[in-house]
Amino acid sequence: MTIDNLKLEFEKNFNKPAQHIFFCPGRVNLIGEHIDYNGGMVMPCAITMGTTLLVAKNDDNIFRFRAVDFPETTDVARQSSYSKTGYEWFNYPVGVIHEFTQAGVELSGLDFLFSGNLPIGSGLSSSASIEVLTAHALNELFNGGMSKVELALLGKRVENEFMGLNSGIMDQFAVAMGKDSNAVLLNCDTLDYEYLPFEIGDYVLAIVNTNKPRKLVESKYNERFNECRAALKQLQQALSVDHLCEVSIEDFNKHRSLINDATVENRALHVISEDQRVKDARQALVSGNIKRFGELMYASHASLQSLYEVSGIELDTIVDFCKTFDDCIGARMTGAGFGGCAIALVKKESFDDFGVQLAKYYNEKVGYQPGIFSSVIAEGVRTIV
Fold first, then answer.
1. Catalytic annotation present for 326
2. Which CATH architecture has domain 203-374?
3. How far is CA 136 from CA 77, 103, 121, 185, 248, in A?
4. Where is the active site (predicted)?
């Protein structure tokens, strides 16, 4: 929906014009999966797709939430604290308002209209996009004085404490701090980061949506989080570390017998090896070795499939096809898994053929069509009007 159409939609909902317009992208993670909550390195980037927010102040001390993409609405009176009610989309911005209120920022009534083109449950961080978008808007409107890093951390608190999902900082950081044509290399423990030009020559970054939605709060995501904590606790009997990603492959192999459960051992092995793959991927990018980067993508998916077990027939079907397509040099699931999206590096000149052949292959294996599009790496959260 265009900005002009959104303005008309806002007036239709609230009988007045919007005063401010903000945008926050979604993200893909190029490599480094399920290690953000284990103190590791990740390499996400913001994309052009995302969420737009139109806002106007009201004199009623009420926060009114409407969305172009969802039928659910709610009106919430201004108060000293808030709590989650169900799993509707508006819980995310309500959680952000709760955080601002707890931080002592004086808010007044607002009318909100959200609109997004990120497929919900696709693993492109629609929830982080809404969180950081709302936080940026409140920060601008009420002089919150927070940096973009602080807005990302606030969004993470909403995800962890308000929504109940034990996620790391990657999603919120990527959509807040994204930079045009650059990947973000982020240390999830220290929040040190580096921008890496994502120069892939004759290739394009394809995003393939399985069209199998997932709900992370209701999934096995928190189970994986707890398995990693169990592995860490057992390794700490011999190693002085605070996070799994501080453990080297050599030290893990030396002390893996301390882990008394084969499944938990596999989870730890994925985390530790994936962190090393991110470091290797950085080197591949810096040296211009895109084929090596693609090999690391395939290795990452294999680990997520067999050791971490967060893939599934839909994502595996996409990656299996990519291995047979000569002009694809790398592919992997992106995001938490359990459905969602995969990404692939495909030669630009072959992208259309890639899409046709993949759709046919996927439909034969899975029984319905995937969504296939090329993506552009973009800027993070920003004010439009």
1. no
2. 2-Layer Sandwich (3.30)
3. 21, 15, 23, 22, 38
4. 171
| pLDDT of residue 213 exceeding 80 | no
Element (H, E) at 52: strand 41-57
The answer to whether the annotation marks 350 as part of a ligand binding site is no
| 351 against 376, higher pLDDT | 351
| Predicted confidence (pLDDT) per residue in 133-164, tens digit | 999 999 999 999 999 999 999 999 999 999 99
Residue 203 marked ligand-binding = no
Q: What is the largest CA-CA distance in the chain?
A: 67
The span from the CA of 44 to the CA of 54, in Å, is 27
- Name the nearest CA neighbour of 46 among 321, 324, 375, 347: 375
pLDDT tens for 293-329 read 999 999 999 999 999 999 999 999 999 999 999 999 9
Exactly one of 60, 69, 111, 171 is catalytic; name it: 171
Known binder of ligand: residue 127? Answer: yes
3-197+379-383 is classed in which CATH architecture? 2-Layer Sandwich (3.30)
pTM of the predicted model, to two decimals?
0.94
Distance of CA 248 to CAs 67, 181, 194, 212, Å? 46, 32, 22, 35
Ligand-binding annotation for 312, yes or no, is: no
